[in-house]
Design brief:
This protein is α/β, with parallel strands linked by helices. It has one domain: FAD/NAD(P)-binding domain. The protein is 34% helix and 23% strand. Strands 1, 2, 8, 9, 10, 11, 17 and 18 form an eight-stranded mixed β-sheet that branches. The protein binds flavin-adenine dinucleotide. The site of flavin-adenine dinucleotide has 43 residues, from α2, β12, β16 and α10.
Amino acid sequence: MSYPNTYYAETTTGKDDFQALAENLEVDTCIIGGGYAGLSTALGLVERGHKSVALIDAEGIGFGCSGRNGGFAFGGYSLHEHGLIKSVGKEKARELYHYTTEGIELIRQRIKKYKIDCEAVWDGVLMCNWFKDESILKKHQRFMADSFGVEQDYIEPEQLREIVKSDQYNGALVEKNAFHFHPLKYALGLASEASKQGAQLFSNTPATRIEADGPTKLVHTPNGTIKARQIVICCGGYLNGLYKPLARASLPIATYVMVTEPLGEQRDEAFTCQHAIYDTRFAFDYYRPLLDGRIMWGGRVSVGLNQPENLDQILLGDLLKVYPQLEGIKVDFAWQGWMSWSAHRMPQIGQERPGVWFGQAYGGHGVAATNITGDMIAAAIAEGDDRYRNLGDRFRLTSTFGPLGKIGAEATYRYYMLRDRMKE
Ligand SMILES: Cc1cc2nc3c(=O)[nH]c(=O)nc-3n(C[C@H](O)[C@H](O)[C@H](O)COP(=O)(O)OP(=O)(O)OC[C@H]3O[C@@H](n4cnc5c(N)ncnc54)[C@H](O)[C@@H]3O)c2cc1C
């Protein structure tokens, strides 16, 4: 099975045992893509008694973002809460925001119910204030409580410095129901449970072409064709032009992660809490303690094709800016992943035509959203539930304008970085 050289792949024994599809197959529902969106759809279907399900992945289960992300299960979308209200109004924004808190709860319940061993740390997530202006967090705390009914605890700067020993931050908010986990182990846990409950999963099975015009859909793969009444396309930033209406509406954007060597007690010189941590900038750092004494550190985005050669040093530089006391530590792993982005920065879910479902464009905030929307698509297919339309009908497959869109995305990123620097 081909997995990238990540800390997560290195620390997961067994990876996936699923075989490649070797013959033609007929099922009710064929899911393309074994990330959280596809896996949650598959599990949601079999949990509802809809057992005629096949899921294929071009590589291994969790090969894409879902097996290599920061492991933050937190609320919200890539579109910031203020933007969400601007787009759909206060009442609808509140409802859509709470899809993601429902997503966090769904993940928590599945980890517990199916005993998925994925190193979950339930302590919550800290959003640390990067800027000098101490009022930022208090304002945000009030805004989240008033607009979304989300209560976050405020930590004063001096109090924060006892557990997060950086002069960079000015206080923090705690998102209490959020948590962090080993993303690849969780993806494989979902896959294993879906398989136990009757779904057929295939790795190393790329969909090479889709025929979607008639009532029966055909998904071609190198060694067999799958006939299905419904297909669900969940290929994220790895879609690579497979299905034009989806490709036109999304952009692959890279983001990066590194993992340090095991630091043991030296890590306490930086922070002693078990929370996952990010900050208040648009292009924030995100990091968390790993169980074996390392730090996982992520940040930055790019539309560039190639992983920077000195990625480990770039990310280490970001870490040392926050924790100069860790000068001299080494990096053991560094990698990139392709997120899928839409022009409106919200997920795209729904039915492109009868029987062709999709879930994509979760951006950098996809752990909770993929899990809940995958389950909504499952409810739609198995039970005719149309709750997915609340999100899907508002955030459609609008064009990202191909290469122009990439230039626009890079420019937007740079603009926000500049704005954050000016604020600094
Ligand atoms: C480095 C990084 C850090 C991140 N950190 C966080 C975080 O901490 N918290 C958070 O909420 N979000 C985070 N995200 C975003 C989050 O991981 C994604 O939004 C989410 O995992 C997307 O899931 P997905 O199922 O849509 O796509 P993916 O997980 O990317 O899965 C798509 C799958 O489709 C398969 N595929 C593609 N083409 C084909 C084909 N033709 N045939 C068959 N299979 C195919 C791929 O092999 C892949 O496995 C991060 C992303 C990255 C890259």
